[in-house]
């Protein structure tokens, strides 16, 4: 089964062809980082406009790279939400148009589900497992019991972890997005130079990083620039250490409490090298197995959407009909 998938939930325009759920024939991603970096974050109106300008070219590139034509495609998949409504609409309208023209079955996919299924592409993975979804807009602990059965244990009460990274990077004039640059600079800094708080929120599965971000702001505001700039690497290393200790310790403790034998990382922040290293070190003696995708599959991409759709199509054996084109963009879509 060849699935042409489209992902436009935020600022990356992506299309790809996935064969039988695991073989990536193509996974084309057109980034808008240069456009949004000057604003320190994604501007929704600009993002949707550039999706409209790029979507046809990205789909054509995905087919060309896969050495396929539309007549070789068996089904379509597209991100329905969550995400920016204008961005979602650009991908959905493109997918609906192709479904109508070529009479292909079309399946809307939850963006978070796609991130989790990125792990299925590279690993022989089966539920049940505990998933830690960490990105610019999401920080969630989720139990996946079956291929389409989820239970959200906890989520962020304020800033998502990726959002906190972006805000700290902006505070220190490090550019956008903040995650990769902080991860790189932190390798050269002292992670215990500043003892920032560890917001564990005892007794809950929830997360909160707003207070940590404020602690960084308060610390930096008291430093003269002559002191701050030489210590930037130490500051971001200390900030990152606080973040990853909370994520790692809370996730492992939750898995042990619930007797889960597998932990899955998903989302853009799952590409963080320090996070992966600490997880590997802490999990070694627990008997729990750790899974995470390659960095390119951690970021928003169409391959993960196609993978998630494959398991749905395989189960339902869907065929094209007009009702498939009636779904709407859902910016706050829940699992």
Query: Helical region count?
Result: 12
Q: What gross morphology would you assign?
A: globular
Segments where pLDDT lies below 50 for 5+ residues?
none
State the distance separating the first and last CA atoms: 25 Å
Gyration radius from CA atoms, angstroms: 20 Å
Instruction: Give the overall average pLDDT.
Output: 95
CATH H-level superfamily title of the largest domain: ATPase, nucleotide binding domain
Q: Which bin fits the share of residues in helices?
A: 40-55%
Topology, number of strands: 10
**Neighbour order of strands in the largest sheet:** 3-2-1-4-5
Task: Tell me about the largest β-sheet.
Answer: 5 strands, mixed
Describe the fold and architecture.
The protein is α/β, with parallel strands linked by helices and 335 residues long. It has 2 domains: 2-116 and 298-325, Nucleotidyltransferase, domain 5, CATH 3.30.420.40; 127-294, Nucleotidyltransferase, domain 5 (2-Layer Sandwich), CATH 3.30.420. The chain is 45% helix and 19% strand. The chain is built from 12 helices and 10 strands. It has helices at residues 33-37, 44-66, 85-102, 111-122, 161-171, 178-186, 210-221, 225-228, 232-257, 273-283, 295-298, 302-316; strands at 2-7, 13-19, 23-30, 75-81, 106-110, 129-134, 139-146, 149-155, 262-266, 289-291. The strands form 2 sheets. The protein has a 5-stranded mixed β-sheet, with helices on both faces. A 5-stranded mixed β-sheet has the order 8-7-6-9-10, sandwiched between helices.
